[in-house]
Amino acid sequence: MLSRFMSGSIRNLEREYSCTVRLLDDTEYTCTIQRDAKGQYLFDLICHHLNLLEKDYFGIRYVDPDKQRHWLEFPKSIAKQMKCQPPFTMCLRVKFYPPDPAALKEEITRYLVFLQIKRDLYHGRLLCKTSDAAMLAAHILQAEIGDYDPGKHPEGYSSKFQFFPKHSEKLERRIADIHKTELIGQTPETSERNFLQKAQMLETYGVDPHPCKDVSGNPAFLAFTPFGFVVLQGNKRVHFLKWNEVTKLKFEGKTFHIYANQKEIILTYFAPTPEACKHLWKCGVENQAFYKLEKSSQIRTVSSSNLFFKGSRFRYSGRVAKEVMEQSAKIKREPPEIHRAGLVPSRSCPSITHGPRLSSVPRTRRRAVHISIMEGLESLRDSAHSTPVRSVSLGESFIPRSRSQATDASEGMAVISDEAYSPSDSVLPTPVAEHSMELAVSRQINGAPCSIEEEKESEAGTPLSGQGGDFGVDGRSAQEGAGGDSALSEVEQVNKFVLSVLRLLLVTIGLLFVLLLLLIILTESDLDIAFLSDIRQTPEFEQFHYEYFCPLRRWFACKLRWVGGLLINK
């Protein structure tokens, strides 16, 4: 029985895992990894597959069994992070948005960022006014189907490509007009570069929203962008802190705190779950280090608490933005070939292909990505009559200027849209039986309408059953009832108190043990100090010295001589 158990353990240690990574062009890269393979090994494999050198902007995202999103930590083992049984499924995504994406060194990097921003536009993470939406959609058309051709593109051709789930005929006509008249002759590379330049100027560029609630229980979205920390509530950007103004990020349980150096501001928000709050904190720590620091040697391990025996510790591992740009400037090679694919029109199911397979791999296959964005995208300038988010503050409320209004003398809230900010893929699905995925695929092939839930499943990577909540980018619904997220429950408070007491007890015992060892070393030394001499003259010390310390010292000396003899013989 024991031998069978041990042999099974040995086989388990030697097991290889299958890992599938969904790329930004909706192909899937499948590989086999060893049990102890680190995240960096898998990431390097993918970058080699894509022929990608400017890889520091990208990361690998996965969803755990509790529907909580995570970024794969490259220095750690993949198997230990996944918390689920293989085969593993992950996604390649842009983790750090370039401050100026159009200025990236290589076309392959710009193309991948282009695909990511298209996703953001489709899924409601990137909001813009109607004129900007028409221009962005026209650039997508030009990049992927080329110049307007009356023989290939009949009247109303732009309406066959479902850029947004619901939009007016006026917007469709505007998209077609721009494509016909303003973009003629532009190559795919030029159109993608212009798309990036346009998207970069939007208030929600680079936003990866985390659903939270403020101290009043009002829903909000927190995000980290290349320019700073952003809070979106309703249709307004209610807070914007530049990275040099953010001094500290903390979390405890579901509570997340942001400290700003101007006017000693503290913003407090509540995440749906402790796991979501920890993920939010980690994202903040990484983004702050990447965009704020001058060099990676300045990166320090960050603690979520002021007490060293309490809270989580985390350190960003990677290069910072300035180093990445300096390294990119040194790239000298022939640009890698990019095989772009055209758009696939579909009226029954709003789907758009997200580009080509960047290279041919036998075990890659294609998936359609379903599009979703809010109807009637609109953006205004500033509003001085908006209701601000209530925050725990040590001073007056701090609402900095917009990035695009840095030279404006007036401060206020930026209204980003007429509609409330509510990205569609913020709802993560609930897993059901495997045949649900097959049913969804068969419905798509047969031309049946795709549900919003199935659309969200495509991004999250798990099948769906039932309805999700309204705010769940990081795993669960944030609408758990009135006041449910504004404070911890009594049971959670008791558990936190007990855990804190246990930590304090363990730290105290550890300190006492260290002090005892230090006292023994000092008393057994030759130091001529009065209180040590008094201790040496006590009967208890003499008994300890002759019965325990001397035999233990002889035993260690014997072992050291034995090890030294072995080394000499070798």
Notes on the protein architecture:
- This protein has 570 residues and is α+β, with helices and mostly antiparallel strands.
- Among the domains are: 81 residues, Roll (Ubiquitin-like (UB roll)); 99 residues, Acyl-CoA Binding Protein (Up-down Bundle); 121 residues, Roll (PH-domain like); 64 residues, no CATH class.
- The chain has a 6-stranded antiparallel β-sheet with strand order 6-7-8-9-18-17.
- Its main location: other.
- Keywords: Cell junction, Membrane, Phosphoprotein, Transmembrane, Transmembrane helix.
- Pfam families: FA, FERM_C, FERM_M, FERM_N.
Task: Give the terminus-to-terminus CA distance.
Answer: 39 Å
CATH H-level superfamily title of the domain at 209-329: Pleckstrin-homology domain (PH domain)/Phosphotyrosine-binding domain (PTB)
Structural class label: alpha+beta
3D shape: elongated
Instruction: Work out the strand percent.
Output: 15-25%
Main β-sheet, in a few words?
6 strands, antiparallel
The total beta strand count reads: 18
Number of helices: 14
Contiguous uncertain segments of 5+ residues: 1-14, 346-412, 425-488
Subcellular location: Cell junction, Adherens junction
Region (Disordered): 452-485
GO cellular component, one term: cytoskeleton
Transmembrane segments: 497-522
Provide a concise account of the structure shown.
This protein is α+β, with helices and mostly antiparallel strands and 570 residues long. Helix content is 36%, strand content 15%. The chain has 14 helices and 18 strands.
